[in-house]
Write a structure and sequence with these properties.
Length: 527
């Protein structure tokens, strides 16, 4: 980790020769690629993980969210550390922490150990996401170079999401899911070496300090909020711990705002949100990324858990989604430089909403790829437009010395939205499925003993555990009941995610605007 005793360098924001600029771009893109691989990695193998470790639905959600919770909570903190002590240093240490997390996951034999490994890898990703963006933007000095840098960063992010399901699906097809995490651990070590050798150092320590009151209050608020959302379905929304978590989150957020308004060196300058494009991009990011990843999580459950497709077959739809952005890279560059983020955001979010509704209309007993191609391609196109435009809207509207803070804030709201996706969609789907299964078991022709067994598994592990449990002849009797209930529950989740994407499109159209506007450099004077 970054040493708190290191002194910030009062040197220029960025240093290095043109060769260093190229090396920095490579290192930054490799780092965000690694971080995104970790984010997407479980998608194609959720079904295998569930069956191997016999996880409940809540534990399966935690395995995905354990990575994203620290990424969301610590993004601003690492943005400050990068500005103070150097983004290159943060890249190296972040990749090292991620490697440790993947080692823990690669040796996991219980859900708890896998969740712990995911959390450690998420801490590393929390450093890599903002540092990779800030280290690239610090090296770009013209509008064209800035547009190319942002498009390269976005493309690398999408390539990471493309590699993840291919890697996990291909590896787990022939061996344990643990080897998928081991392979990413090796990549994390290579990323640390590349950042150490290739990246040029950059920092922006002026006016920045470790704002401990702000950091602690925000981190605790985020943890309480996410705990309440994730544990609500299993503990009960009216249970004392869940209600206390939501209340604590609200109080701590109020404390955070008060602390930041009074701080002489705040970790987040709230005046950034007075910039309409920046504030709107933050709202659209939370809502839109919730919609995108909630839909992607639903797709992974459909393929791996409900349909029991093999890891490699479950990976193919994600390859289609994530393979779109590299092909539209030239389009992203032109759009960023000539039209600006507004039209891109609206088109992207509408595409995502349409894709979610289209996927919802595909019958659950349809196992082929062809019926899914339309929504998959539309999803991938919308994702590329949205991620590129959100980043541009955030970074291009602030002074260059604040790009580290803007990048960290963008990472925070993006990861918060992504964390909310599996949590909220899972909560909706599992709650509805549990109620439906409990109602339908009575009409499934079960004996009283079989009904008691099924009800006990449902009560203890939830609908996913019941759907995948090995109960002998009983499993075949309840298969249609659990499949239909899970499909209906997650289809309702898709309706929610589609509405979220449409809401993000409306916010973008109203506050960022549909009028084409060329990408421009931020004001470097700090005014």
């Amino acid at each position: 980790m970054v040493s708190s005793s290191a002194r910030p360098q009062a040197a220029p924001t960025a240093t290095g020769t043109p060769a260093h600029h190229t090396g920095t771009l490579i290192a930054g893109c490799l780092a965000v690629c690694l971080a995104q691989i970790g984010l997407v990695l479980p998608a194609a193998i959720n079904g295998v993980i569930q069956r191997s470790l016999q996880t409940s639905g809540a534990e399966l959600t935690w395995i995905s969210d354990a990575f994203m919770v620290p990424a969301a909570v610590l993004a601003l903190t690492f943005g400050v550390l990068g500005d103070l002590y150097g983004r290159k240093r943060l890249l190296v240490h972040g990749a090292g922490v991620a490697a440790v997390g993947y080692l823990v996951s690669a040796t996991a034999d219980t859900p708890g150990q896998l969740i712990t490994g995911q959390a450690l890898s998420g801490i590393g990703a929390a450093a890599l996401f903002p540092a990779s963006l800030a280290v690239i933007t610090a090296q770009t000095t013209t509008p064209a170079a800035r547009a190319r840098g942002l498009a390269s960063w976005t493309t690398a992010l999408s390539i990471g999401a493309f590699i993840a399901p291919l890697l996990s699906g291909a590896v787990v097809e022939h061996t344990s899911f643990r080897w998928a995490f081991a392979a990413v651990g090796v990549l994390a070590l290579l990323t640390a070496v590349a950042a150490r050798l290739l990246a040029a150092e950059s920092s922006a320590p002026e006016g920045r300090a470790l704002d401990w009151p702000g950091q602690i209050s925000l981190a605790l608020a985020m943890l309480c909020l996410l705990y309440g959302i994730i544990q609500g379905p299993s503990d009960g929304w009216s249970s004392t711990p869940v209600l206390a978590a939501f209340l604590a989150a609200a109080l701590l957020l109020a404390v955070f705002v008060r602390v930041e308004n009074r701080s002489t060196a705040p970790m987040l300058r709230l005046e950034l949100f007075r910039i309409p494009a920046f504030a709107a991009s933050a709202v659209a990011t939370v809502v839109g990324m919730f919609g995108f990843l909630g839909g992607a999580y639903t797709l992974s459950i459909r393929l791996g858990v409900i349909q029991h497709q093999s890891p490699l077959r479950a990976a193919i739809p994600f390859l289609v989604i994530q393979g779109i952005t590299p092909f539209i890279w030239p389009l992203l560059v032109r759009l960023l430089h000539r039209t600006g983020p507004g039209p891109m955001l609206v088109a992207g979010f509408v595409s995502l909403a349409a894709a979610q509704l289209w996927l919802r209309a595909v019958p659950i007993d349809e196992h082929g790829l062809v019926p899914l191609l339309g929504p998959l391609v539309l999803n991938g196109f919308g994702f590329g437009l949205v991620v590129a435009a959100l980043t541009a809207a955030a970074v291009n509207t602030v002074p260059q010395k604040l790009t580290g803070m803007a990048g960290a804030t963008t990472s925070l709201v993006r990861d918060l939205g992504q964390t909310l996706g599996p949590a909220i969609v899972g909560a909706i789907a599992l709650s509805l499925a549990t109620t439906q299964i409990a109602s339908d078991l009575g009409a499934a022709g079960l004996t009283p003993a079989e009904n008691g067994t099924a009800s006990a598994v449902l009560s203890e592990g939830g609908p996913i555990a019941l759907h995948t449990a090995e109960l002998g002849p009983l499993s075949s009797k309840i298969a249609l009941v659990t499949e239909r209930a899970l499909a209906d529950g997650y289809n309702t989740g898709l309706l929610v995610t589609a509405c979220a994407c449409l809401m993000a499109a409306v916010v973008s159209a109203k506050f960022i605007g549909l009028r084409p506007q060329a990408t421009r450099l931020p004001d470097t004077t700090g005014n």
